[in-house]
Amino acid sequence: xxxxxxxxxxxxxxxxxxxxxxxxxxxxxxxxxxxxxxxxxxxxxxxxxxxxxxxxxxxxxxxxxxxxxxxxxxxxxxxxxxxxxxxxxxxxxxxxxxxxxxxxxxxxxxxxxxxxxxxxxxxxxxxxxxxxxxxxxxxxxxxxxxxxxxxxxxxxxxxxxxxxxxxxxxxxxxxxxxxxxxxxxxxxxxxxxxxxxxxxxxxxxxxxxxxxxxxxxxxxxxxxxxxxxxxxxxxxxxxxxxxxxxxxxxxxxxxx
Length: 256
Ligand SMILES: NC(=O)c1ccc[n+]([C@@H]2O[C@H](COP(=O)([O-])OP(=O)(O)OC[C@H]3O[C@@H](n4cnc5c(N)ncnc54)[C@H](OP(=O)(O)O)[C@@H]3O)[C@@H](O)[C@H]2O)c1
Fold this sequence. Notes:
By secondary structure, the protein is an alpha/beta fold. It has a single domain, classed as Rossmann fold. The protein is built from ten helices and nine strands. Strands 3-2-1-4-5-6-9 form a seven-stranded parallel sheet, sandwiched between helices. The chain has a two-stranded parallel sheet with strand order 7-8. Helix 4 links the parallel strand 4 and strand 5. Helix 4 (about 100-125) runs parallel beside helix 5. About 40% of the residues are buried. NADP nicotinamide-adenine-dinucleotide phosphate binds near residues 87 and 137. NADP nicotinamide-adenine-dinucleotide phosphate binds near residues 15, 43 and 190.
């Protein structure tokens, strides 16, 4: 007799590398069903091979486009956990991105995350213990010269998550926004910011696995946000000061 699959399901965007891959591995180790989304076929295939997990399904979608979110919602049943992680960093001085680049980046990092969450929200409310995790960035609360659109989108989605977390307080859903600092992934290389791998001192980098561990812990506890890594927890209170921001911006200065 065919056994009913009673595992919980997580939908993870941007699974193919970095934080998304670490999240997928973490949940696979716990036996979750996984619905995994990314855009590039060859990176998705490599990710699938790396994960090597029988309870995962793979979907190719460009999440910078609204029609991709529609198609995801039409094709994937309401999950128990959403991990809205997919993202890229775009570097460049103010005015250097054209209209479409700005729209796409903002949709990928913010508006698309909102559309995805709100499409599933009514049914998630009916499921016991539903969770939403949003991977924002420490850039949400720190100025990022030459990455201003990225920082603005991360800030907007942080703000949305904080409000939603409180709005859903009495319902069956927790919302947790994670604000990682520098994480060794493909992100900087892809954005032409490879020089930061050398420039940013070693103590400022944290592992993707650490981000996942702390984010999951915070989400299960129902916390509305988390800053992974001891060093970032320590510096967070000082990031509003002019002096701390000057030092921070010097260390993390972008070339282009
Ligand atoms: N690395 C850091 O220092 C850092 C710090 C703070 C926050 N974050 C955030 O963490 C999240 C994950 O980034 P990461 O550092 O792990 O980078 P990564 O290794 O480059 O992974 C990015 C993931 O997002 C997917 N993705 C990018 N654009 C997409 C699109 N248009 N449609 C669908 N999927 C797309 C990629 O899929 P493909 O392979 O198919 O392109 C990949 O799976 C991002 O939101 C990023 O902003 C990173």
